[in-house]
Amino acid sequence: MALHPALAQLLMPERRAVIFALKGVISMALALFVSMYLQLDRPYWALVSAVFLQIRPESGLVIEKAICQIVGSAAGGGVGILILAFLSGYPVLALGCLTVWIGLNSAAASMVHSINYIYAFAMAGMTAGLVVVLVMANASAADSQVVFAIAQARISEITVGAICAMLVSQLLWPVKVKDSLRAQARSAINDTLEYITVELDPDSSHEQRHKHADQILETLVAVNDDSSAVAYEGPEGPGRGRAASLLCNRILSLLAVTQIIGRFRRNHAELVSPAFAELLALMRRQLTQIAETDSYEEGYRLAQQLRRQLKQLRDQQEGEEAIVSRLSQTALEMVGDLVVVLRAYNALENRDQTLLNAPRLKTHRDPLVGAVNGLRTAAVFLIGAIVWVQTASQAAIMLMIMPVVFSVMFSRFSLVALSVILPRVLIGTMVSIPVALLFGLGLLSHSSGDFEMLVLVLAGPYFVGLLVLASRPTLPYGLGFCIPFTIITQPSNNMTFSADTAVSTALGLFVGISVLYWVFKLISPPDSQLLQRRLIHATARDLLDIDNHQHPENWFNGRMGERLLRIANFDQGTGTSDRYMTDLGFTGLNLGHVSIRLRRLIQSHRSASVNLRLREWQKALSKTYLKSSKGQFHPQFREASANLLRAIEEAAEPNQQTAIIEGMFERLALTFERTARTVARATGKPAPQAKRGQDAAAAPGR
C-alpha cells in the first residue's frame, strides 16, 4: 500500500519545514502585535507561548495544545493566588508550597504520554511560579489587587500567544492532523504486513522480527496520540479518532496472533503438517500482494479472498493434531482482524458507521517514575530559588522558571533520549545568547522601537530557529534557541536595551539549563531492569483482571500498547541482542488474547464447576507467566489446565472445540517452558528442568 503521490508531496520535509517556519513567524508577529496593542506587561511571554505551539503545528494539534496551555495557565495562576493569599507573609513557606506544586505537576506529566497534555502541566507549574516569584520580588508594593493583576497578566499573555498561533494555523496553509494520521496508519499497516510475512518465514532472524515490531509499536503510539487532536478538525474528526483507535487496537491483536503462529512454526516444526504448511504459505503470498497494492479497495478484496481460502483449507483438514486445528482457526481470526484494520484505515478518510468503537491506547502509569521526576523538577526549582533568595537578582528568576518548564516537558523521556536532548537544548541556548545580544538587541537599540522594526529585526532569527524546530532530530536545538532568544531580547512597548540586564538574564538562563542538565544526570530514573520488571508485573495483574471487563480484548490491547513500547525501548537502551524482555512483553500480549479466546470457546460449556476451574486456571496463568519471566517453571499450570479440561468435558460432550482447547493448553505449556529456558539462559541462571513424571500425568494432549 504505497503512499499516495499528493500526500507524499505534502509531507516533503523541506517544503513542510519552510511552511511551518513561515507560519510560526507570522503567528509570533501577530501575538506580539496583539499583546503590545493591549498594553500587556510582558508581551514576550505571548511569544514564548506561540513558540511552544510550533512543535507539531498541524491544525488539530495546535488547537488541542492551545486549550491545554490556556487551561494549565489558568490553573497555575489560581494556585499562585492561593499560595500568596495564605502565605504572603511567610516567603519560605510560600516557596516551599510552590516547590511541591511544581514537583506534583512534573510527576503528573510523567503519567501521560501526549505531549499536549504535558504542556498543560508545564504551564501550570510555570504560571504559578511566575505569579508567586514576581509578587515576592517586589513584596513592599504587593497587595491583593497587585497579585490578581500579575496573575491576570501572565494568563492573558499565554492566552494571546496560544490564540494567535491557533488562528494562523487554521487560516494560513492549514495542514491537517488527518493527513499525517492517515500516512502513519498506512505505514503501520505496511509494517504489520511485512512483519507477518517475516514472522511466518521459518528462516527469518530474531533481529528482523524485532526491528519490524519496534517500528510498529512506535507508529501505533504516534497514531494514538494524534487521534485525540483530529477530533478538533471538523464534524468528521471524532469519527476519524475512533477509527484510529480501532486500527491501533486491531493491529495489536494481529501482532499477538501472528506471534503465536510464528513461534509455533519455529519451535515445533515437527508438528507442522503438510496441510498447515500449505495454509501458512498461502497466507504469506496473499499478504505480500496486499502490501504491494496501492488501492484500499483492492487490498480489502484480497483480504476477503484470503479469508475465504483459509476457511476452505481449514474445513478440509482431517486427522490433524489438536494444536494444529487451533492454530488454523487462529490464522482465520488473524485475517479477520486484518479486514477490520483495512476498514478502519478507510474510515480515516470516508465515514464508516458500521465500525465498532474501541478505546484509545492507555498510558502506562508508574508511580515510581512519577515520584523520581517530581523530585528532580522540584530540585531544579529549589536550586534556583536558593540562588534567587541569596542574590535577589532579577536574572535568577529565569534560572528558576525556564529550567522547570523544560524539566516538566522532558519528564516522560528515557535517560537514553535525555542524553541526546539535553545537550542539544544547551547548545541551542549557547547559540541564542550571542545572537540575542549582538544581533537582536544590537540592532534594536539603534531603531525607532516601533512594532514594524521589531518584526523586521526579529523575523530572521526566529525563521531560522523555527526552521530547525520543524525537524524532529534538530527540534531540541530549535527549542533551546527560540525560547532563550525571546527571553533575552524581551520585545515589548518600552524596551530598555540595558546591556547589564540582558547579559544577566542570558547568564541566568545558561546556568539554569546547565543545572537542569546536571540534576537530570544526578537524579536518574530507576534502573531499566527494575522498570521492565514492574511492567511485566503490571501485565500479570491485568491477566488476572480480564474477566472483569465487558470488552476484554479492547481493554487489554489498550493497556498493552504503550507498555510494550516502553519494554522495547528499555531493551534497546541496554544494547543486548537477545531482547528477551521484549519477547516477554509480547508473550504477555499473547496470553491475554489466548485467555480471551478460551472464554469464547467454552461459552456453551459454562457451569459452576467450569467457572471455578477457569478462575483457578487464570491465576495459574498469571503466576506461571511471572515464574517464567524469572527463568523458572511452574508445574501447577499443567495441573490447572487438566482440571479445567476435565470440567469442560463433564459439562458437555467433547467435540472439535474441546480438541482445540486441548491444543491451546498444550501450546501454552510449551511456551512457558521455552520462555523459562530462554530467560534462564539470558540471565545466566541454571536451566530449569521440568518434572516430567508429575507433568506427564497432568499434561493434556501428551
UniProtKB/TrEMBL annotation:
Any coiled-coil regions, as ranges: 296-323
Record keywords, A-Z: Cell membrane, Coiled coil, Membrane, Transmembrane, Transmembrane helix, Transport
Localization: Cell membrane
Superkingdom of the organism of origin: Bacteria
KW Heme (keyword) present: no
Recorded topology in the membrane: Multi-pass membrane protein
Membrane spanning residue stretches: 20-40, 81-104, 116-137, 149-173, 368-389, 395-418, 425-445, 451-470, 502-520
Region annotated Disordered, chain positions: 679-702
Family annotation (InterPro entries): PHBA_efflux_AaeB/fusaric-R
Protein name: FUSC family protein
Organism: Marinobacter halodurans
